Amino acid sequence: MAGMFRRSSPLPPFPPGAVLVGGAARDWLRGVAAKDFDWMVPDPAGAAHLLAGALGGSAFELDAERGYWRVSAPGGVQHDLVPRPADVEEDLRRRDFTVNALGVLPGGRVLDVVGGQADLRARRLRMVSRENLHADPLRAWRAARFELTLGFRLEAGTEAAVREVASDLAAGRLPLPAWERVRDEVHALLRSMDAARGVGRLEELGLLALTVPELREGQGVTQGGFHHLDVFAHGVEALHQLIGRFPDAPVTLRWAALLHDVGKPRTLVRDELTGRASFYGHDKVGAAITAQVLTRLKLPGEDVRHASALVGAHMVPLPATEREARRFVHRRRALLPDLLAVMLADREAARGPMSSDASRRAYARGIERVLTALEEQPSPPPPLLRGEEIMALLGVPPGPRVGEATRALAEAAALGEVGTPGEARAFLLAWAAAN
Question: Does residue 208 sit in helix, strand or coil?
Answer without folding.
Answer: helix
